[in-house]
């Protein structure tokens, strides 16, 4: 692999871009390497594994933990720190991942919300982390992304979104790209259908990577549900294929973290959704019919959120500059 470092400041983080010849990441040809991460995943308090720790939030680096719950944070992620954060008006989850064992303690946020940016920054500061990336799974229709504000408030932060989203960002990712955060990486999987540019970020496979794996599904797959397909280039056929080919092919114990939940759930697994998802366990025609008959009201914020999110949530700033 020949890294081609981009100029992303003094951080030691790296993104490696590979071209992927199939739907899996087993056959990879390195093409481009961007500076990116080392991670530690922060644990959601309600998902803390059964190991003793002097800290209620950070896992001790040497802790090997055993979950007593069917939902858990990866059992072999001793260097990983992970937090699941909630914004209640749009019922949005933001995820913080960081590597507390790396000297720089680099961190990233997935799907930050503009009005929660100060909370996110304080948490990152309290934990002594360095935010490197503010990433989106897609162009959201129900809230304004926090990526633009994070870029303004935290020097050096780079916004990340898929090329297929058509949205502005510092870095555009494509299927098969690997976003490195220290010893860990997130693999980019294309999961269009809710929007044409949706991606799912999946933790790496192999030794040293979190076990079980974790997938941040955005709105492609929700717990016992899925994203709607009636605007923003949505397609129920595409969504069905995305979930079945890119998410349901992951190991059954893979932990699935959605961008929203409207009923108080926090996490699910591939195995559970393959068994109990009331939409995606059906055949494709039934799925399409379900999606055509959801009769959901348009998101209240759609006319503000979509244009703003096409420019990292900084619509006003962009408009004034032009
Ligand atoms: N009432 C909310 C929007 C609720 C909604 O439409 N959620 C979307 C994801 S955000 S675009 C969705 O796909 N829901 C699927 C479902 O089955 O609920 C608002 O006004 O913002």
From TrEMBL:
Which CDD domains does this one have? Answer: POD-like_MBL-fold (cd07724)
Q: What is its EC number?
A: 1.13.11.18
Which keywords accompany this UniProt record?
Acetylation, Dioxygenase, Iron, Metal-binding, Mitochondrion, Oxidoreductase, Transit peptide
**Subcellular location(s) per record:** Mitochondrion
User: Could you tell me which residue ranges the Metallo-beta-lactamase domain spans?
Assistant: 91-260
Q: Pfam families from the xrefs?
A: Lactamase_B (PF00753)
User: Which reaction does this chain catalyze?
Assistant: S-sulfanylglutathione + O2 + H2O = sulfite + glutathione + 2 H(+)
Q: Please list the GO biological process terms of this entry.
A: glutathione metabolic process; hydrogen sulfide metabolic process
Q: Which PANTHER family match?
A: PERSULFIDE DIOXYGENASE ETHE1, PERSULFIDE DIOXYGENASE ETHE1, MITOCHONDRIAL
Q: Which family does it belong to?
A: Belongs to the metallo-beta-lactamase superfamily. Glyoxalase II family.
Entry protein name: persulfide dioxygenase
């Amino acid at each position: 692999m020949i890294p081609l470092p981009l100029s992303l400041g003094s951080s030691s983080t790296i993104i490696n871009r590979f071209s992927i010849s199939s739907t899996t990441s087993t056959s990879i040809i390195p093409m481009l390497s961007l500076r990116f991460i080392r991670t530690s995943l922060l644990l959601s308090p309600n998902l803390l594994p059964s190991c003793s720790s002097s800290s209620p939030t950070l896992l001790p680096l040497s802790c090997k933990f055993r979950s007593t719950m069917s939902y858990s944070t990866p059992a072999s992620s001793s260097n990983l720190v992970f937090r699941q954060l909630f914004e209640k008006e749009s019922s949005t989850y933001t995820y913080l991942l960081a590597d507390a064992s790396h000297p720089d303690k680099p961190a990233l946020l997935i799907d930050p919300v503009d009005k929660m940016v100060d909370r996110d920054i304080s948490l990152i500061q309290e934990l002594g982390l360095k935010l490197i990336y503010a990433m989106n799974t897609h162009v959201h229709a129900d809230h304004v992304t926090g990526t633009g504000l994070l870029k303004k408030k935290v020097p050096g932060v780079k916004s990340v979104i898929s090329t297929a989203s058509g949205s502005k960002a510092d870095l555009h990712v494509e299927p098969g790209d690997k976003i490195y955060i220290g010893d860990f990486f997130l693999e980019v999987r294309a999961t269009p259908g809710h929007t044409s540019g949706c991606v799912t970020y999946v933790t790496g496979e192999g030794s040293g990577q979190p076990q079980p794996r974790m997938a941040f599904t955005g709105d492609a797959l929700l717990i016992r549900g899925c994203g709607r397909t009636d605007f923003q280039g949505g397609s129920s056929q595409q969504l069905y294929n995305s979930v079945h080919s890119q998410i349901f092919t992951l190991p059954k114990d893979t932990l699935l973290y959605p961008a929203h939940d409207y009923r108080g759930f926090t996490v699910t697994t591939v195995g559970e959704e393959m068994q109990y998802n009331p939409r995606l366990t059906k055949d494709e025609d039934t799925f399409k019919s379900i999606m055509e008959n959801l009769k959901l009201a348009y998101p209240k914020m759609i006319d503000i959120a979509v244009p703003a999110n096409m420019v990292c949530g900084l619509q006003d700033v962009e408009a004034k500059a032009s």
